[in-house]
Every structure is written in C-alpha cells, then in structure tokens.
Specification:
This protein has a domain at about 45-130: Nuclear Transport Factor 2, Chain: A. It is elongated. It has a four-stranded antiparallel beta sheet with strand order 1-2-3-4, with helices on one face. It is of the alpha+beta class. The chain has helices at about 10-35, 45-55, 60-65, 75-85, and strands at about 95-100, 100-110, 115-125, 130. Strand 2 (about 100-110) and strand 3 (about 115-125) form a beta hairpin. The chain contains four helices and four strands; from the N terminus they run ααααββββ.
C-alpha cells in the first residue's frame, strides 16, 4: 500500500498566505490610526468653524474630539446633538465671543418652544484649542 506523499509546498503556501494576511491587517490598522484627525483645533476661529460644521453635519465623533477629554463624557457630543434635534434648533450660528477676559463658543437661536443658548469656554492645551464641556456657571450672562 502506497501512502500519499505529504504536500509541504501547499502547507508552506498556506502559512505564507496567512502571514501575509496578518501583515496586511496590521498595516491597515496602523494606517487608519495615523490618518485619524487630531483632537482640538489649531486656532479659536478654526475651532468655531469645526464646531459649526460638526453640528451642521450631525457628526458626533468629530464634535466629541473638539471637547477636552476629561471635561466631557464619551457620549456628550451625541447627547448634545440629540437634544438640539429634539428642540428643532436648526441653523443656529456658532459664534466666538469674549466676556470677562475669557473666550466662549456660543450657539444661540430660536426653537419652537423659545430661545436656545449654549455657551462653552474655549481653552488651550498643548498648542491646540478645545471646548470645555462643562459650561461656566458665572460670567456668561451677557452671552445668552
């Protein structure tokens, strides 16, 4: 009785293909991480524009990256966009305002139930500009 000879070439080809697939998968992960947009914005005016675009496009991930990480919960931006949609606040401008020596981003508009205004302090960290997710308690009266 003759036995079939082992096919080392097929086994070697399978191992090579598996290693190549693994290498491509790791490369894809590295490329996606390298192309992820940086958090924050390079200037306050760019931050204003980025927040406005994120709100207009309902892009919660992009908006979340504009908030200081330790000052806004993981789903803060999504919750904010949901509330804005519930209030039917549409097309409200995002403006950069100054009060009491501090800068703020403000979204102010009208909804069917009345006026809506949200203001956040703008802060700089590591040469990037961010929105502080915790609205200030004082100093915003003139803003809203």
């Amino acid at each position: 009785m003759t036995s079939r000879p082992a096919h080392p070439r097929k086994k070697q080809l399978l191992v090579t293909l598996l290693l190549l697939g693994f290498a491509l998968w790791i490369t894809g992960i590295c490329v996606s991480i390298a192309h992820e947009p940086p958090e924050g914005s390079p200037s306050t005016s760019t931050l204003r524009d980025d927040v406005a675009a994120s709100v207009r496009e309902q892009d919660a991930d992009r908006l979340q990256n504009l908030f200081l990480k330790d000052r806004a919960a993981d789903e803060y931006a999504q919750g904010l966009l949901d509330r804005m949609e519930e209030s039917r606040l549409d097309g409200a401008p995002v403006t950069l305002e100054s009060a009491h020596g501090r800068q703020f981003l403000r979204i102010k508009g009208s909804a069917p139930d009345g006026p809506v205004c949200v203001a956040w302090q703008v802060t700089q960290q590591d040469d990037r500009w961010y929105v502080d997710g915790i609205p200030p308690v004082t100093g915003t009266g003139a803003l809203c």
